[in-house]
Amino acid sequence: MAKGYRLTAATGIHKGDREYQQDQVALIAHPRVSGCVLAVVADGMGGRSGGRKASDQVMLTAKQLFERYSPDHDEAGGLLKQVVQEAHLVIKLTAIAAEQEPHSTIAAYLINPAGDCHWVHAGDSRIYHFHGSKLVKRTLDHSYVQTLVDAGQLTEEEANVHPQSNILMGCLGAEEDPPATLHFVPQLRPGDVLMACSDGVWHYFSPDELSSVLSSLSPREASEFLIEKARSRGRGAGDNLSLVIVKLEPLEG
């Protein structure tokens, strides 16, 4: 791991105001390589058991492939793309066997010991990268409203309250192959924060609010605060919530 920081992290999950929990979240430390971690959020869709089966499959696939991953010999972006492709295929097979229509999003980031970071997403679960209180980059949703934002027909704020904001243009388990948008951060720095979360979380916060919370609180405190505040703002109609936060804290002296 690059000198100058230590990783602190936390996950959070809550069923919100839904009857069933279909989100899944994981933070996986590599079994053999110190300083190598994989964070994954999956938002399952397709009825009570269908959505949960889909998000479970994302987690199982990610864990199995990550355990075989070697930072010295394997390409992280290739691994993340493989997670998306393999989970997608198994979810489609599950649909045939179970007479359901399970689907899932994915937002996953992998941090290597050298300090480089790779991420992938499909659907509307997001990854945010902050440095201190400044937003460096976030993923762009594979959603109908994001296409309208890209075309200049909606603002980000209008998209958030649009009646069709939940329509996805791609996800795992759908008929079409899922989009798998990759991003690469050559070198993380002390003061960086990464968060992957489902739309049940990000829907209720501006980037400025997220940066303020993540920069001022520990990952555990931030995850608890964001879930509690999102639940309050959902006013009894909130979605499942899941998030995973990794913070690069500067080493003293």
| Largest sheet composition | 6 strands, antiparallel
What's the overall average pLDDT, rounded? 94
Shape: globular
What is the total tally of β strands?
A: 11
SSE pattern? EEEHHEEEEEHHEEHHHE
Radius of gyration: 17 Å
| Low-confidence residue ranges | none
- Structure classification: alpha+beta
What separation lies between the terminal Cα atoms?
A: 17 Å
Question: What proportion strand?
Answer: 25-35%
**Separate helix tally:** 7
Helix residue percentage = 25-40%
In terms of quaternary structure, what is this?
A: single chain
Task: Name its key features.
globular; alpha+beta; 253 residues
Write a compact overview of the structure shown.
The protein has 253 residues and is an alpha+beta fold.
Describe the protein in words.
Strands 2, 3, 4, 5, 6 and 9 form a six-stranded antiparallel sheet that branches. The chain is 34% helix and 28% strand. The model has no long low-confidence stretch (mean pLDDT 94). With 253 residues, it is α+β, with helices and mostly antiparallel strands.
Task: Outline the fold blueprint.
Blueprint: E1 5-14, E2 23-29, E3 37-45, H1 48-67, H2 76-98, E4 103-104, E5 106-111, E6 117-122, E7 126-131, E8 134-138, H3 144-150, H4 156-160, E9 181-185, E10 192-197, H5 199-202, H6 207-216, H7 219-234, E11 241-250
Antiparallel strand pairs: 1-11, 2-3, 3-4, 3-5, 5-6, 6-9, 7-8, 7-10, 10-11
Helix pairs in contact: 1-2, 6-7
